[in-house]
């Protein structure tokens, strides 16, 4: 086998800076990264398991890797990923992903945070790693991640992540942490659109929006003031009803934002969700600000789709990759290993050739070299 099937991967990671001193480079950096990606897609969750995977698959790996000194030890994998600059590693990953995904304009991109609970090291005063990730919801692909520094709020990390992922036409959805005028401005100036959840972190505005809808629905919005959509679906004994109201009347936007400080604000949205499971009924009401027109059907779908970052990324990381229990924490290794997991999820999620869950696909990738190669080159 030649490197030809992996040419896009090789091209994307070829310029990744090697952080090691030249005299210590027994193994090629590209070989180390490629083995790690293959191993994690194929079920490895630690550096020891990556090294064992490499030894078990050495003959196959030699078909497209140089491996001048054989398979690196688990210490070598750990040391390299502890030194590797996360931002440069992520840039190479994004370049590789976008070659398969194509332009992300008109994609919905959800941003949300997750803590790796067991990545702390109390003896050295290091808290658990907290990352804010970007997720292309329709494609099921991770587009990037930013570390939130200890004792900082997620809002500090968001601008750097937005710089990476916002392109003209992309719709950015963020929960209440991102409901800030500066965030809205950054998205609009980059040519994107936003749907931002509005909660108690903007108390006066949240109260005004709640009053607007409570009073408006009680007294009766006029037809030209309101756009409404209802969606009902269910399965496995659960029925979910989602109602969405969107308002864009200038009178209301002037009332809510009299000084015009929210860039691009076009519509104010309320979504009511009711889930019925047997005799149990759960109801929830959420408010949003958006730069999109007041098209309730579209906004209802966008709000619902945002939660794929929880279901398709964060939940899968914990269930199929056991991320919360990972104790990797030396140097940059925790960030880089988290990026490797997101690479794996993106590859596994895009494959539609078999009807298997992510965990089962990982097992198959570990057993079946042809299946793994198809994942890497799709």
Characterise this structure.
The chain has 2 domains: 4-84 and 330-377, no CATH class; 108-313, no CATH class. The model has no long low-confidence stretch (mean pLDDT 88). Strand 8 (267-277) and strand 9 (280-290) form a beta hairpin. It is an alpha+beta fold and 378 residues long. It contains 15 helices and 9 strands.
Summarize this entry quickly.
The protein has 378 residues and is of the alpha+beta class.
Query: How large is the radius of gyration?
Result: 23 Å
Q: What's the main sheet like? A: 9 strands, mixed
**Low-confidence regions:** none
Strand order in space, largest sheet: 3-2-1-4-5-9-8-7-6
Overall residue-averaged pLDDT value: 88
- Tally of contiguous helical segments: 15
Structural class: alpha+beta
Break the fold down into its secondary structure elements and pairings.
Blueprint lengths: L6 H7 L15 H13 L5 H10 L1 H4 L12 H10 L2 H16 L6 E9 L12 E8 L4 E8 L5 H12 L5 E4 L6 H9 L3 E6 L4 H17 L6 E10 L2 E10 L2 H7 L10 E11 L2 E11 L5 H11 L1 H12 L13 H18 L7 H10 L1 H9 L1
Parallel strand pairs: 1-4, 4-5
Antiparallel strand pairs: 1-2, 2-3, 5-9, 6-7, 7-8, 8-9
Helix pairs in contact: 1-6, 2-3, 2-13, 2-14, 3-5, 5-13, 6-13, 12-13, 14-15
Features:
378 residues; alpha+beta; nine-stranded mixed beta sheet; elongated
């Amino acid at each position: 086998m030649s490197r030809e099937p992996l040419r896009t991967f090789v091209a994307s990671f070829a310029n990744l800076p090697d952080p090691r001193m030249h005299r210590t480079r027994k193994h090629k950096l590209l070989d180390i990264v490629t083995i790690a990606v293959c191993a994690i897609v194929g079920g490895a969750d630690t550096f020891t398991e990556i090294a064992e995977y490499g030894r078990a698959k050495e003959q196959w790996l030699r078909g497209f890797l140089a491996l001048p000194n054989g398979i690196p030890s688990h210490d070598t994998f750990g040391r390299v990923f502890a030194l590797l600059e996360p931002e440069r590693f992520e840039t190479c990953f994004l370049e590789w992903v976008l070659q398969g995904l194509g332009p992300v304009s008109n994609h919905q991109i959800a941003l949300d945070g997750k803590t790796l609970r067991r990545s702390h090291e109390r003896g050295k005063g290091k808290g658990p790693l907290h990352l804010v990730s970007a997720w292309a919801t329709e494609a099921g692909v991770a587009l990037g991640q930013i570390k939130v520094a200890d004792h900082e709020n997620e809002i500090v990390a968001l601008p750097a992540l937005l710089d990476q992922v916002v392109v003209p036409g992309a719709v950015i959805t963020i929960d209440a942490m991102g409901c800030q005028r500066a965030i809205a401005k950054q998205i609009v100036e980059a040519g994107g659109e936003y749907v931002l959840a509005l909660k108690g972190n903007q108390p006066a505005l949240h109260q005004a929006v709640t009053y607007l809808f409570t009073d408006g629905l009680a007294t009766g919005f006029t037809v030209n003031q309101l756009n409404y959509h209802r969606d009902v679906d269910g399965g496995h004994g659960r029925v979910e009803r989602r109602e969405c109201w969107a308002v864009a009347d200038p009178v209301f936007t002037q009332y809510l934002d009299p000084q015009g400080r929210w860039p691009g604000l076009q519509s104010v949205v309320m979504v009511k969700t009711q889930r019925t499971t047997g005799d149990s009924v759960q109801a929830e009401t959420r408010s949003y600000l958006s730069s999109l027109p007041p098209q309730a059907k579209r906004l209802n779908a966008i709000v619902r789709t945002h939660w794929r970052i929880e279901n398709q990324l964060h939940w899968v990381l914990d269930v199929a990759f056991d991320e919360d229990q990972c104790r990797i924490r030396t140097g940059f290794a925790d960030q880089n290993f988290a990026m490797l997991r997101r690479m794996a999820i993106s590859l596994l999620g895009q494959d539609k050739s078999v009807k298997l869950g992510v965990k089962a696909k990982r097992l198959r990738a570990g057993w079946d070299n042809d299946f793994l190669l198809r994942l890497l080159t799709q």
